[in-house]
User: Fold this.
Amino acid sequence: MKKLLLGDFAVARGAYEGGVKVATAYPGTPSTEITEELARYDDVYSEWSPNEKVAFEVALGSALKGARTIVSMKHVGLNVAADPLFTAVYSGVNAGLVVAVADDPSVFSSQNEQDTRLTAVSAKCPVIEPSDSQEAKDFTMLAFEISEKYDTPVILRLTTRVAHSQSLVELKDRAEIPNKPYEKNIAKYVMMPANAKKKHVVVEDRIKKLSADAEHFSINRVERGSEELGVICSGGVYEYVKEALPEASVLKLGMVYPLPYKMIEDFAKSVKRCIVAEELAPHLETLIKAHGIEVEGKNIFPLCGEFSANLIRECVLGQKNCGEIRQVPARPPVLCAGCPHRGVFYVLSKLKLNVLGDIGCYTLGAVTPLNAMDSVICMGASIGMAIGFDKAEDGAYKKTVAVIGDSTFIHSGITGLIDAVYNKARVTVIIVDNRTTGMTGHQNHPATGKTIKNEPTYPLCLEDVCKAVGVNRVSVVNLDDVNEVERVVKAELAAEEVSVIIARKPCVLLTKKLYNGFSVDPEKCRNCKMCLKIGCPAIISGEHGVSIDKSLCTECGLCRNICKFNAIEGEAK
Amino acid sequence: MDILIAGVGGQGTLLASRVLGKYALDNGFDCKLSEVHGMAQRGGSVITYVRISEKPEEKIYSPIIDEKGADIILAFEKLEALRYLHYLKDGGVVIYSSQEVMPMPVVTGAEKYPQGIENLLNGVEIDALELAVKAGNSKAANSVMMGALCKKLSLDKEKFLAALIACIPQKTIDMNKTAFELGYAAVK
Assistant:
């Protein structure tokens, strides 16, 4: 049966059909849907782990114990999981371990545009890269086989366009793969110096062998076309090349590390002009050139952003085909109408504080008109950076806060908080706790009290965690009263010790209610535009003063709270 | 056939692309859809690409539509139609909702919502919001737009409706059917 499947769903299906028993992940666009989909299968154990490092370690344990396992993450998640990855390549895996990593060329929903293939080269971990959903399924199944045959984790590299595009996939039944027997093997699994030294040799030999064997892998193939032009490509770029250059010869690499150099050399010799087309880093190009093979690459293609058929035509053939772009007002993403984070950022903006931010929906507190953020770097960075602010300049703590979401705090904020207490930093941490992992589409996490399958479980209490690591000042603030938020923030900033403010209210998108919406009384409104400072998409500035879009308003009451003229009508919830 | 669906995050552009995908699949065509999730969805400008082969045996490669490549722009919001107008092929058609959703620079008064967009679009305007309310709920505006698209492209109405019904919750079928019919009838 054929079905239209999202690339991520196809990976999940491939894992399922390939007999996967355990699937772990921390949510991250564009990889989240792999594990969400796997959670629907009863015969697969799945979990949201607190972060990618733990997800990887659970996955490695499961593979060592003999079950086929998949762990999924976005590109920056692999940085978090890099520590176990680099040594898992040494220890090997026993049963198949697939590491699905989704890169984000053009940075649709990430903090950087890094290229996972480069991490894989440093880790000496093989990488295969599908072009569409059918390949996403097939390559996932193949990745288990390669992983088991060569006793190594295998990275399945996706990009946003492959992960979030839908194309036709042939569905098959699940293969029942019995667990491989586990045997204690200290020389293989205990990576202390004497053993690791020997295993490094194994790793280097493995990559050499894989490179030689890859000459015969069917996922590396030549599609013979014109002798004038040959293109070496992989993944989503293959689709653009086929569309833009239908006459060209194409070497499609399914495995992008290690490479089949003989095949590449023969291909390059067979055409008059040989080009490597790849998004982001010149990964293939560098390896190919280091092997003494002459190719074109980043001399004609950009290093940043995703490709398209148009871009290939332009860079290779010099054909431009662009329409006239109209100058229209931008429509950046914004905090939703009724977002519980808005009041917090309004207060931080009003108090003109240095706000060290973190990763999540609340990163949008940085956009106009709130502009309430100084930095966003990586998951959990807010707390460590706030400690740095305090240590760098005496008194900085009086106007510095760290803002971090509930899921991000659990992911990697807790260790920062321990550092703050241990090293006597005077930091104020605001945990904006919306009871979900919002940005990636409302996944459960350890504090929601529900598993990935929505089954009840032990709910982690954030207050208890903060107190347990030694924070004496822990308060929970009422977000319905913005004056109260301001009072608490001021009081905690003044304290000469670590304090945590938990700003708790569920994400407005979780409450599926119908609202009447507030309205503005034109008699009372003086058009002072105070309410426009909160950046609510439901409040609109028009020629005849301010009005409220009732279809968007969720009656959160923040605008009503700050209006000095009582011009906003309606009952605050 | 390349259809670019434009709108504001939360307007249901993903549903429209999935219905078109289902329609293509049911009728034996190759099809690719490309979506945007995550940060960009939060009230931001979103586009979805739908590419359907002309013949069943033809293969679609790229999941994205290039500038000057779209046969149709289906826009759930007027300004968004204008934003992506450079994706329209010469001779392509714009079908757009008359709905206006103010972007943040307009909300704060920093910029003005452009006037006279209709003249630049020169397409088929559908009062999708009003027709959806007439059908029972403003959220059915995307079904209104799909009805309009079906009529404009002379697609098989019964098959298209079947694809729509397959993609929505059971209890909303009647309302969405009504919305679809209203959109269908709105195109002359």
